[in-house]
Amino acid sequence: MPSPAKVQPPRLPPGFDADKLTDPQEAAKVADWVEKEYAGSPQPESVRMLVAILRKGAQIGGQDGWFRPAETRYTWKWLVGQQGLAADAKALPAGKFHGSPALFDRLDRDGDGAITPGDLDWSDRNPDVQQLGMVSRLFRRMNTAGNGKLTREDLDEFFKKAARGKDHITPDDLRLLLYPRGGYLPGDMPSTPMFTRGFLAGEIGSMSEGPRPGVATPDFTLKTVDGKDTVTLSKLVGPKPVVLVFGNFTCGPFRALYPEVEAVHDRFKDDATFLMVYVREAHPTNGWVMASNTRAGVAVKQPTSFTERVDVCKQFCQKLKPAMPVVVDEIDDPVNTLYSGVPARLYVIDTKGRVAYQSGRGPFGFRAGEMEQALAMCLLETKPAKEPASAPVGRAPADR
């Protein structure tokens, strides 16, 4: 596999010293210098991210820097046209849906028996997405094992932490544990120097931006984690859509959300090909170390050889038990560079080998439900139904 072109990090001022960024004024000076350096030309995502880190530090949010919404060619307008509805249609009821009940079920997110634009809206302003964010945050606080699966022991431990010696939990107790001061779990908040070094090391994200919808997917060949086989992407493309899952062991949100991806795999493993690509660690012990990882038994240095990366990937497999095939990126990160996969990302590739869906960057943009809807519409496009199928009766959101 030919090595991809090296993506250069943002230019830095002469004499740059990350240790000096503890001073907000020094960080602001560097941000000003970087912005002037790129004035008059479009800023790459990496430049926007560096400036956001320098100006906001650990308080960076899901709409700052290089964090942006997913990109997909499957929109409400696309679905209306594919289903033969009028361009101004506001809803697609079950009885008029050309496709299987299983596909309708995944697109009808609120379970009311009709697909609407709101069901396909994954923006941060959508109430369902906001609720999903709160649930995910609560889940991570409760899942002390860090394996994406809650146990009775997790629940008991969470109660003890929230109650703080009492026999009950108040709403304020829950709020303090769910939204701690600073927004981070104890020991997880990075200093601006640590955040910046993690960025420059390519641990919190790739400097590349990855292929957008409509672009032919870059090919690659990687070894499986057990070393018994190799997988070439171009050999997977064609018969079925392909879902690429990028992630790593030390990204806590990825571990928490990965079981949702496995659930999509379980539902659609006969209709699509799934492949996980294991990439560079986001929070190694010699980088932006997170105490929540250590408490969950996840403590590894950044691998410096392919063999070391395989060993860490095996730890991931032992803890998360993925059912889909897992391949491991080479130590110089060629596939991560091609796809901008660190710390976590999702792609749907159509049967012609083009990108149909690119998720936002993890952790904020890693949404299995959004990917699943893109996959469902890709399947509609691949095998369009001529007549409406007998669709299921709508269910309440709580039943999903």
From TrEMBL:
Annotated EF-hand domain residues: 130-165
PROSITE patterns: EF_HAND_2, THIOREDOXIN_2
First and last residue of the signal peptide: none
Pfam families named among the record's database cross-references: T4_deiodinase
UniProt domain Thioredoxin: residue ranges: 211-380
Segments of this protein annotated with the region Disordered: 1-22
GO MF annotation: an example: thyroxine 5'-deiodinase activity
PANTHER family according to UniProt: IODOTHYRONINE DEIODINASE (PTHR11781), TYPE I IODOTHYRONINE DEIODINASE (PTHR11781:SF22)
Protein name as annotated: Type I iodothyronine deiodinase
Source organism: Fimbriiglobus ruber
Record lineage: Bacteria, Pseudomonadati, Planctomycetota, Planctomycetia, Gemmatales
